């Protein structure tokens, strides 16, 4: 009864209910053939192969007695067999493949063509061995009855020709080609011959081509089948490049002229496209006397009798106009420009009031053709600017540019958006003339158009604001009123769509705006929008793009009030946000800040807020922070940031001792090892002051030593008599010298810019006790879990019960440590001087 109640609630009619039940019955019927299609035990037995067989034996067995699918797998595995055991594969497997291919199906044939090509590309064997073993198999399967298989083998052969030596090509390919290209051969054989001849034209000298290949070319250009004439016509470009300009003029050009007047429209189209591609090889006489009349004839017929070539003609028109530019008369120049304008509005005559009845009768096929023509005109627009000269753009082409940017079809506007940057570069100082069209495309209803325009948006905006007629601030101010609303509208439309990649790309390109508009405009129109995207958007790449762009805006903002406000919001809303997702984005933002800002800026504003996240309740945040710590440490400078280094070390110590998440703890240990290998950068100015202080201390010590030596030289004769008494004094002096060195070492270590790198034995557990007998002994008691780079020599660990927590002493304790060492050194020196005075009195007495 429950299903009936459900249907009554959903208000299904009785007929719909019965239809639904019938659909379910059909689904149950479909399951039965699936069960029957399972393999029977006999079929499984036939597919089973002895596991003890080697790769070569298994391949031979499957090709000999296996099923088609097993043979195909062996053929697909041929490159692997050639890499492992080429000799045995060529001797045993390849002959079997050759036998099987005679009766193989389409799938195995296509697989073999790909495998043979892979063997050639991997160079598993020498080219001589390849031509001896594989080339004959390729040539045998070229004329396969299936066109797809034949084309696959032909592609393999054309790739092989590139690597074969000339003699092999001549004997194995060129000589048989003469017979294969004859009219008596099959259509497929003649088509293959056309493509092979196009490839051979670049392999032989001109006289060989003239003697052995050109007669075949002429024959195939006059073939009875239009497919052969088309194929040979498209190969004439390659043949012309191989034989040079002289033979092209005498042999190829007459054939092209004849093919351009062929009865078949597709043949004429192929001849036209080949003529355009070979324009550079013709001299001025050939262009004016032969090519230009043909082109004019094509243009006239395209609207009257042969609309099939309109698409191709519109695609090549830019290249054609610039290729024939030098031979145009003013009338011809104007005629081709008008022809381009007519093509640019083809199919839009209704807007101009022309051909209303004809437009209503247009078929869907015609509409698609006209859209393609206008799209090609948009593609050729930069070439037409060169054709008319950028100075004449506003007079000659601006109306067409306006129409193409406002075309009702998306593909046309999309093409204009792609070529917009090229147009802007060509216009140079006159680029401000297309400012309105830039705004139009930025506000286009299709995100595809916006995505195409965004690719070069920074360059376009720079040209638009700095390259206008009145270069400088004046043109910059003129463009801003319309530009900023268009940019904000474009971002909002991308944000509300599902195409997040377009939104990400747009935000990345908006990082150029500090070079375009003022920091106040960025602050009020874009900067807060970036912060909103970071806080509210759900797509991670979009959030990261917004974060980086926001950091760029902050970097170029010189107003301290605005800077401090943004920094405070980043810390409060992201770093201290309620959502762990926001706190993760804060770490991403800090990474961008380290990339874009100075080290001192990061240390001043963001170092401590980042370290506060070591206490974050979410493991993912702590884990991301651990990955970031090496970069954080790299921002420090010693001794300026010595207190920050202490805070960093304390945070890592707490993580090691208190972290409960296994994944985070593993990353912490890894990070500790990485931090231990890092070296901290030096603060050069501070170091120079400390060096001067150290030099002053060492100078005083050297003066005292020099004074002592002077006194010793005066009483050398007396000291010789009482040498036994002076020995203890010398040892005392030595110990005093050692103490003096130790005290200097302690001072230098306290200002050292390089971290100590202690070696430890265990990193799995945090220590419970630490000795207080100095820095070295305390580190050795901590174990490997505290493998850190400590640059402050005053650091000590104090045991508080069994908690294992480490504490940093104040700077006064470090001064006491240095003062005690200095007092010991001074005491030793005083005792030594007293002993020396006693000796002098004894000697005088």
TrEMBL record:
| Chief site of localization | cytoplasm
Residue ranges, compositional bias (Basic residues): 836-845
Q: Gene Ontology cellular component?
A: cytosol; protein serine/threonine phosphatase complex
Q: Tell me the ranges holding the HEAT repeats.
A: 213-250, 252-290
- Span list, region Disordered: 686-713, 729-753, 793-845
Q: Where do Low complexity bias regions lie? A: 802-821
Q: Which UniProt keywords apply?
A: Coiled coil, Cytoplasm, Phosphoprotein, Repeat
- Where does this one sit in the cell? Cytoplasm
Instruction: Describe the task this protein carries out.
Output: Putative regulatory subunit of serine/threonine-protein phosphatase 4.
Quaternary arrangement and interactors, per the entry? Answer: Serine/threonine-protein phosphatase 4 (PP4) occurs in different assemblies of the catalytic and one or more regulatory subunits. Component of the PP4 complex PPP4C-PPP4R4.
Provide the protein name: Serine/threonine-protein phosphatase 4 regulatory subunit 4
Q: Which organism is it from?
A: Falco tinnunculus
């Amino acid at each position: 009864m429950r299903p009936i109640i459900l249907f009554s609630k959903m208000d299904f009619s009785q007929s719909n209910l019965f239809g639904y039940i019938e659909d379910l019955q059909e689904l149950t019927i479909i399951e039965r053939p699936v069960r029957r299609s399972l393999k029977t035990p006999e079929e499984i037995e036939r597919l089973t192969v002895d596991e003890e067989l080697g790769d070569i034996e298994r391949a031979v067995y499957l090709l000999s007695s296996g099923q088609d699918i097993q043979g195909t797998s062996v053929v697909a595995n041929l490159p692997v067999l050639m890499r492992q055991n080429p000799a045995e594969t060529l001797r045993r497997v390849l002959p079997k493949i050759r036998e099987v291919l005679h009766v193989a199906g389409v799938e195995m044939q296509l697989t073999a063509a790909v495998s043979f090509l892979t063997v050639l590309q991997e160079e598993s064997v020498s080219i001589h061995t390849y031509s001896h073993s594989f080339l004959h198999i390729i040539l045998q399967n070229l004329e396969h009855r299936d066109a797809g298989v034949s084309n696959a083998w032909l592609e393999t052969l054309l790739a092989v020709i590139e690597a074969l030596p000339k003699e092999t090509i001549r004997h194995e390919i060129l000589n048989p080609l003469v017979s294969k290209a004859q009219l008596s051969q099959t259509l497929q054989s003649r088509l293959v011959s056309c493509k092979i001849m196009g490839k051979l034209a670049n392999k032989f000298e001109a006289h060989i081509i003239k003697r052995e290949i050109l007669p075949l070319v002429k024959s195939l250009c006059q073939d009875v089948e239009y497919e052969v004439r088309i194929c040979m016509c498209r190969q004439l470009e390659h043949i012309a490049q191989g034989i040079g300009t002289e033979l092209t003029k005498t042999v190829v050009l007459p054939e092209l002229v004849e093919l351009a007047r062929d009865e078949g429209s597709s043949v004429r189209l192929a001849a036209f496209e080949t003529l355009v591609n070979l324009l550079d090889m013709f001299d001025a006489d050939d262009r004016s006397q032969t090519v230009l009349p043909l082109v004019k004839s094509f243009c006239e017929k395209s609207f009257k009798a042969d609309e099939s070539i309109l698409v191709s003609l519109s695609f090549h028109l830019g290249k054609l106009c610039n290729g024939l530019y030098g031979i145009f008369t003013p009338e011809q120049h104007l005629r081709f420009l008008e022809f381009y304008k007519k093509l640019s509005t083809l199919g839009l005559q209704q807007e101009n009031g022309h051909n209303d009845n004809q437009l209503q009768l247009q078929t869907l096929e015609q509409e698609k053709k006209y859209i393609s023509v206008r799209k090609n005109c948009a593609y050729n627009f930069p070439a037409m600017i060169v054709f008319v000269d950028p100075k004449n753009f506003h007079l000659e082409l601006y109306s067409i540019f306006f129409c193409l940017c406002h075309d009702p079809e998306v593909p046309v506007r999309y093409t204009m958006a792609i070529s917009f940057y090229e147009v802007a570069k060509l216009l140079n100082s006159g680029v401000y003339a297309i400012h309105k069209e830039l705004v139009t495309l930025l506000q286009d209803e299709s995100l595809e158009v916006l995505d195409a325009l965004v690719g070069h948006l920074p360059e376009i905006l720079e040209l638009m604001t700095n390259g206008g007629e009145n270069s400088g601030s004046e043109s910059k101010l003129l463009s801003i009123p319309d530009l900023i609303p268009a940019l904000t509208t474009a971002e909002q439309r991308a944000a509300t769509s599902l195409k997040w990649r377009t939104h990400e790309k747009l935000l990345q390109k908006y990082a150029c705006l500090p070079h375009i508009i003022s920091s106040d405009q960025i602050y009020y129109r874009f900067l807060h929008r970036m912060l909103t995207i970071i806080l509210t958007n759900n797509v991670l790449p979009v959030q990261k793009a917004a974060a980086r762009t926001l950091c760029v805006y902050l970097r170029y903002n010189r107003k301290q009030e605005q800077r401090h406000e943004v920094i405070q919001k980043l810390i409060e809303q992201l770093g201290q946000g309620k959502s762990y997702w926001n706190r993760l984005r804060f770490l991403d933002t800090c990474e961008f800040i380290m990339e874009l800002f100075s080290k001192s800026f990061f240390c001043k504003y963001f170092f401590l807020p980042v370290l506060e996240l070591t206490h974050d309740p979410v493991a993912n945040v702590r884990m991301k922070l651990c990955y970031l710590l090496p970069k954080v440490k790299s921002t420090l400078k010693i001794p300026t940031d010595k207190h920050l280094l202490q805070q960093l070390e304390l945070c890592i110590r707490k993580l090691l001792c208190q972290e409960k998440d296994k994944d985070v703890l593993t990353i912490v240990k890894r990070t500790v090892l990485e931090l231990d290998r890092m070296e901290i950068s030096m603060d050069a100015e501070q170091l120079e002051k400390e060096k001067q202080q150290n030099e002053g201390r060492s100078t005083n010590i050297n003066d005292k030593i020099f004074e002592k030596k002077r006194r010793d030289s005066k009483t050398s004769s007396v000291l010789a008599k009482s040498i036994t008494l002076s020995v203890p004094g010398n040892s005392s002096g030595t110990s005093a010298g050692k103490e003096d060195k130790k005290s200097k070492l302690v001072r230098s270590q306290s200002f050292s810019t390089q971290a100590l790198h202690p070696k430890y034995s265990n990193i799995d557990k945090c220590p419970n006790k630490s000795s207080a007998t100095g820095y070295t002994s305390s580190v050795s008691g901590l174990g490997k879990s505290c493998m850190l780079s400590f640059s402050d020599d005053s650091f000590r660990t104090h045991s508080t019960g069994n908690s294992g927590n480490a504490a940093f002493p104040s700077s006064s304790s470090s001064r006491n440590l240095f003062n005690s060492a200095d007092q010991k050194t001074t005491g030793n020196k005083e005792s030594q001087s007293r002993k020396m005075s006693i000796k002098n009195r004894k000697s005088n007495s």
